[in-house]
Amino acid sequence: MDKLAPERRSENMRQIRGKDTAPELVIRKLCRELGFSGYRIHRKELPGKPDLAWVGRKLAVFVHGCFWHGHDCAEGIRKPKSNRGYWIPKIERNRQRDAENIAALRVAGWKVLIIWECEINEQGRISKRLKNFLQIITPNKSFTHRAH
Questions:
Q1: 125 φ, ψ to 5°?
Q2: Residue at 118 is within a domain
Q3: What integer pLDDT is reported at residue 148 of this predicted model?
Q4: What single-letter DSSP state applies at residue 77?
Q5: Which of the four, 35, 55, 63, 132, has the lowest number of CB atoms within 10 Å?
Q6: pLDDT at position 15, please?
Q7: Domain with 79 in it
Q8: Is the pTM of this model over 0.70?
Q9: Please, where are the H alpha helices in 22-73?
């Protein structure tokens, strides 16, 4: 059973953002610190509206919340305590939609990186993954990458 009263739970749920989440802002800041600017955010014309997209390079980054996107970590496998008949199918639909969007991007020639919310605290690991990913296409070129 949920510890919060239904009115309080509804208020909490209304506060959850779909864009510009704290994990997204951390990744954007990290990209800037690494010198990888020039990205666009939430491009409506792209499948899934990637959180960051380098359109000319066809590179997309999604920053997924573990619970909302059904990650297989501790937070992602946690089941809702109330209204399970709604939330469990909703999360499964989110997973299916994510897979379809990623497939559509790849068919269109895009490279896609998923960063999970549970990984955000591992800054060194995330920095390395971002550098490796963003240098896929331009390993020896600086697109808007500034060497530090």
A1: -65, -45
A2: yes
A3: 46
A4: H
A5: 132
A6: 52
A7: 19-134
A8: yes
A9: 22-33, 66-69
* Rounded Cα gap, residues 36 and 30, in angstroms: 9
**Which residues partner with 61 through β-bridges?**
52, 113
Q: Is residue 6 part of a domain?
A: no
Q: In angstroms, rounded to a whole number, what is the distance separating the alpha carbons of residues 139 and 54?
A: 15
How many domains does the chain divide into? Answer: 1
- Cα–Cα distance measured from residue 25 to residue 75, given in angstroms and rounded to the nearest whole number: 20
Q: For residue 20, which amino acid is it? A: D
Using an 8 Å Cβ cutoff, are 108 and 100 in contact?
no
Q: Which pLDDT score, from 0 to 100, does residue 110 have?
A: 97
Q: What tokens were used for 24? A: 């997204």
**CA nearest neighbour of 10 among 83, 77, 92, 68:** 83
CA dihedral 42→44→49→52, nearest 10 degrees, is -30
Classified as helix, coil or strand, 84 is helix
Consecutive 10-residue runs of the chain (148 residues): their mean pLDDT?
60 59 93 91 96 95 93 83 87 96 98 96 92 74 50
Strand partners, 60: 53, 112
User: What CATH number should be reported for the domain holding residue 67?
Assistant: 3.40.960.10
In a domain, 88, yes or no: yes
Q: Is residue 143 part of a domain?
A: no
